[in-house]
Target: KCNKI protein
Amino acid sequence: MATTSQPLQVKTTCKKIFWAVFPHACFIVSLVIYAFLGALMFSHIESTRKVTVSEEYRKFLQSLMYHARELPDHLTENETFNRNIHQLLNAADPVWFINPKERWNFFGSLFFCCTVFTTVGYGNTYPVTRSGKCLCMLYALFGIPLMFLVLTDMGDILAAVLSKSYNEFRKLQSKILASKLCSGSTCSKRNELRSREQSKIVINEPLTIVEMLRSQSGVKQVKYRNVELFEMLIARENENTQPARNKSMERWSSCPELAREKTVSRVIENFDKIGKELEKLDVPIVLMVLVIFVYISCAAAILPKWEKKMDFHEAFYFCFITLTTIGFGDTKLEHPKFFLFFSLYIIIGMEIVFIAFKLGQDRLIVLYKKVISFCAEKNMPSKKIYPK
Model:
C-alpha cells in the first residue's frame, strides 16, 4: 500500500505545482509568442519593401557634391563649410542610408517589437511602409496591455519575495536585539513562568454516555423520556467516534468533473489575485532605490563588453533610460541581437522599477493626505466658548 500511495502523492503534488505555476507561465509564454510573431510579420513587411530614390535624396547628393567641389585647402579654418555640411547632414533622412534587409532581419524586428510593447521606443528603428505603420499601431494596441499584465503578475511574485525577505530580516534583527537586552537569569524566570502557565491549562474532553446519564440522574424534571435521551446520546457518541469524511474526496471519486471544475476555479482565483500582493507591499523606498542602483550597475558593468563604444557611465544611462521606458534614442546599440538575450534582465528590471514607482506613489498619496489634513485643520475656525 505504501509503494502505491507514494506515486499518487507525487502525482498530486506535481499537479498542484503545475496549476499554481500555470497562470504565471501563461502570461510569459504568450508574450514570447507575441514577440516572435511580430518579428516574423515586421521582417516580412519592412525587409521586402522597394528602395526608391526620392527627390529629396537626389537634392541631398547634389548639395553634397557641390560642397565637396568647393572644398577649401584649409578645412579647419573655414567655418562656413563646416556649418553647411552640418546643416546638410541634419536635414538627411536616415532611411536613405539603411539597407532594409540588414535592418529588418529577424533579430532587428524582434528588437523593434520589444521596444514597442515595452513602450521604450528608441526611435532609431521605425516602420516606413504604410502597412507597417498600421500594423505597428495594432501590434502596440494589444501588446502593451499584455506587457503590463506580465509586469503586474511578475511584480506580485517579486513583491511577495521582497516583503517576506524584509520581514524575516526584521524578525532576525529583533531577535538579535532581544537576545542582547535579555540576560540569562531574567530569561530563565520568564520561561519558568510560561511553563507553569501552560501546565495549568486543562483540556476538557467530551462527556461519555455514562457520565451524561449520571449528570442527568440528579435532575428532577426531564423533558425527554429515558429512551429518547438514550437514543440521542448514542447518536452523538457515534458522530464523535466516527472519522470525519472528506466530502471533497467523495465527490472527486464519484464525479471527476467536479474535481476538474475545482481546479479550474482555483486557476481562475489565481487570475483574480493579480495585483493584490503589490497593494500589500510595505518596504522602505530607500531600500528599493538601492536595489535599482545595484541592479543597473551590474548590467552597466556587463554591457560594455559587447558594446565597445560604451563605458560604464554610458551603459548605466542606457539601462536607466530603458528600464524607465523613456527611450530617447540618443544612445544606439551596435549589436541589438546580443542585447535581446538580455531581455529577461529588461523585464525583471522593469518590474523592479514598477514596484518602486508603486511604492513612491503610495508614499506621495500619504504625504498629500497629511498636507491636506494639516491645511484643513489650520483653516478650520476655532470654537468659541461662551460663558453659561
